[in-house]
Amino acid sequence: TARMNEGVKGPLTLLSAPAGFGKTQLLAEWAAESAYAIAWLTLSPEDNDYVRFFRYLCSAFQEVEPQLSEVILDYLQTAETSRLEMAVLLINEVSAIPKHFVLVVDEYHVLENSSIIADLNFLLNNLPPNLHLIIVSRSEQSLDLAILRARGQVTEIGADELRLSHEEVM
């Protein structure tokens, strides 16, 4: 949890390890102690539908800020979705929130829709200063982390950090 607290000072925390390493458990413990408002989105394979994904993402944001994303939800229902327009609308709305908050995207590895992945990478590279993103995944294969890593803006917690020592098990 100390690494999570340190990571939230930057734009991105990545929890990446195989199943059973306690990623979600660590995150739940950290969230219970955190003073930050947290929007939490747990993905399933069905969330590879573009409109469904954005509806759920907006619903997660609305847990933090109820008025947030109504424009996006209206847009999803009335217009042809443009990948760039959706991402820009979301970034603009998040930027307008007067408080700092955290978005958790759990089970990221189930995403296969290239448009959703591209939007999340766009968001990642254009994060508003009031948003910290935590991605929980079994892999990082579709994340565009090169620029953020080069800038030292990613806190990475992997299998080695999550693995319990013999003393911790006892």
Question: What are the segments in which pLDDT stays under 50 over at least 5 consecutive residues?
Answer: none
Distance between the termini: 20 Å
Number of strands: 5
Assembly state of the chains shown: single chain
Describe the largest sheet: 5 strands, parallel
Going across the biggest sheet, name each strand in turn: 2-3-4-1-5
Rg calculated over all Cα atoms? 16 Å
Q: What's the helical proportion of residues?
A: 40-55%
Q: What structural class is derived from the secondary structure elements?
A: alpha/beta
Tally of individual helices: 9
Task: Sketch the topology as an H/E string, one letter per element.
Answer: HEHEHHHEHEHEHH
Shape category: globular
β-strand percent reads 15-25%
Q: What is the typical, i.e. mean, pLDDT?
A: 86
Protein model, in words:
Strand 3, helix 6 and strand 4 form a beta-alpha-beta unit. The chain has a 5-stranded parallel beta sheet with strand order 2-3-4-1-5. It is globular, with a radius of gyration of 16 Å. The chain starts with a helix and ends with a helix. The chain contains 9 helices and 5 strands. It is an alpha/beta fold. It is 46% helix and 17% strand. Helix 3 packs antiparallel against helix 4 and helix 5 packs parallel to helix 6.
